[in-house]
Design brief:
It is a single chain. The protein has about 25 residues and is an all-alpha fold. It is built from one helix and no strands.
Length: about 25
């Protein structure tokens, strides 16, 4: 597993959670 891919995936998940919490 590539670290960059993992970080990107985690960032997208975090962003989705933040948007869900706000919206």
């Amino acid at each position: 597993l590539h670290t960059l891919f993992a970080l990107s995936n985690l960032w997208m998940v975090r962003r989705t959670l933040l948007q869900g919490a706000r919206g």
